[in-house]
Write the structure tokens for this entry.
Amino acid sequence: MTVPLTDLIGLCYVYAHASIPTADFDTWLSSSPRHFFVKYGFPSLHVRRWDERRKLATKDLLICKECVTKNTREVELTKAFLRDVRLLRAFDPFGGVGAFGLALEQSGCVKVTHTVEICLDAAKTLKNNASRSTKVYNECANVMLRHAVETHAGHDVEDLRSIDGERLPAPPKPEDIDYILAGQSHSMLNMYRKANDLKRNLILNVLSWVDYADPKICIFENVRGFLSFRLKARQATEHRIEGGIELGGLKFVLRAMIDMNYQIRFALHQAAHYGTPQTRVRFFVIAAKPGTPLPEFPQPSHSFPEADSLRISSTRGKYIRTTPGTAPHQFVSIDDAISDLLRFDWLICDAAGPFCGFHGPELEYEHPPRNSFQRQCRRKESPDLQHYADVPFEKGRANKHSEADESAGISAF
Ligand SMILES: C[S@@+](CC[C@H](N)C(=O)[O-])C[C@H]1O[C@@H](n2cnc3c(N)ncnc32)[C@H](O)[C@@H]1O
């Protein structure tokens, strides 16, 4: 087969399965979205029967020796780096359930050591998700900040207690923090737009933590609506604000970070471009002190066709290529993610019960894992495959939903 050079859009490494040492297989596969393997070969490209396959040996694949040597060296260097690296100690003032922190920890370079969360249920989940040594403060991030600043300044301050009365550990000192991560609530969903919305001002809390701790590196995540936030806007009506500085929130954050001597990069990203089975656009700012390399945003690993104007792309970084068909993988669908969970139809479930579907420790999967996503989800055993959120519904409203879904031919699973 001949491929015109102009059709090539990137490099992939394709090895015979037999040539990858079993012990290193998962590490090798997950170390780059451009790593692929082939297990079987067929006599021709027009495959007629599965039993015509034969296992490929290392010598069956033509490979570029120079590229393979370079790639193997890179993988070895990454392994050595992760073995010897001193983990960056991270602080998250808006911990939620700890998902952002967990994701960063998966890089192998970060350990979330301190995190704050105001909501008791979220803080309990966070404790459950985080490692034992992570200090979780069930408190308001503003109260924690004041407590940390006053304690650090040597003032005589009373110990803090969490919302359910538990004594909280001492706040983090600046020298305890290398990294600040923060994903904040800045929702535009509320129809009552407020010019002076406290939730929007939480960014001031994050910037104050940066001022206090002077970390080497920061990453902030926010909803796309953050970009529509206009500084100095006026409350025109109950539902509407007007005037103010366009992109005011963004300009303010960049100005504050530059004043605190950070290099900065920012971008809008689509979660589906990175192998998440959902479509979710988020705005990210990364910042690093001079002397600390400012990370590039990663290129999409998954192709996802949603047309989305990512007009603000990373500043002075590499262009983030989102054209469908240019990433090495197809997007992960909901079916890819959960087709192995037992299916049920919520229209025929017991309406008096607290939830639909099955639950209990005896539950089994519908079928063996069909892809690496499903395999990965099973790495940590779960005592119950069916997790549910207890959302109180008005009965009439639930019926309306079910009628609408039925007429649309939708059955939930
Ligand atoms: C967008 S969520 C963060 C999600 C988090 N990054 C994660 O991965 O789970 C924002 C969180 O900030 C919490 N929050 C809001 N105001 C707060 C405050 N004043 N102090 C501490 N936490 C607060 C909310 O309860 C919510 O869980």
Q: What stands out?
A: The two ends are 44 Å apart (CA to CA).
